[in-house]
């Protein structure tokens, strides 16, 4: 080993001495090539490729948020709709673009509308609509095409629909069905249901919008209608008062008639009973008189004469008669006396 090393050393030295200028320059250039990495340009190109691939991948990722749908458009035309929240893929721009569509609930008011009722009166009504874009691909695309994904424009057009529907719906109801002192006659719920039926199908087929609720938030009367309503209510109250007065009079007449009928019935019954009692008393009196006459004819004549005087002579009666004639003879002669034969009879 030492001999080989010594030989190599001598050869290397001789080479340096033999060509000092050229050989020295060649030796320095050889050391520079050995210190640089052999694949450095390729590494830089690979790193750049990785960065480009990462950028392309990041540009191809789409995040779908909760409460939104994402429409993937290909060269400006809707290609597909992403509905599930999370990450998804698309071709990078300019091939495909992602447009978010808000699916949250929104509320739109119609504003005050002057509409006419079926009975020819005017009312001022304001309604609201709770709506949202239907969460399926067809209706999301329909919303995109109809209003270019502009919720404010959709709300403006919905207000126009509701205004027209209010005019049509109000023409199906009388004013008394919407404003009345009797709560049982008020049909606001029917009004709201009919209004919803007017706009529900149109908004879905035109804008892809689903109506969740429709309600009347304000209902007032113009001055002309208010005066007419007050007059009508006054007339209704007067009619009701007249009807109730007539009912009261009719019931009172029925009560009086029934009372008079009952009184006549009671009076007739009393008259019949009195006649029966009087007849019975006369029968009994006749029987008493008969027994009295049979027992004492003279006493019977006396009692009959007294009864006759009681019947003929009253408190204000003035009579001029013979006193020796019946029945006044008893006043002069006095009570008759029984003859001796009658008194001696056993």
Automatic annotation (TrEMBL):
Occurrences of domain Band (ranges): 59-233
Annotated Basic and acidic residues bias: 1-19
Molecular function in Gene Ontology: peptidase activity
Membrane topology: Single-pass membrane protein
Domain of life, source organism: Bacteria
Region annotated Disordered, chain positions: 1-37
Pfam families: Band_7
SUPFAM superfamilies the UniProt entry points to: Band 7/SPFH domain (SSF117892)
Keyword Protease set for record: yes
Record's keyword terms, sorted: Hydrolase, Membrane, Protease, Transmembrane, Transmembrane helix
GO biological process, one term: proteolysis
Localisation per UniProt entry: Membrane
Sequence ranges of Basic residues compositional bias: 20-30
Subcellular location, principal: membrane
Function noted in UniProt: HflC and HflK could regulate a protease.
Sequence similarity: Belongs to the band 7/mec-2 family. HflC subfamily.
Protein name per Swiss-Prot or TrEMBL: Protein HflC
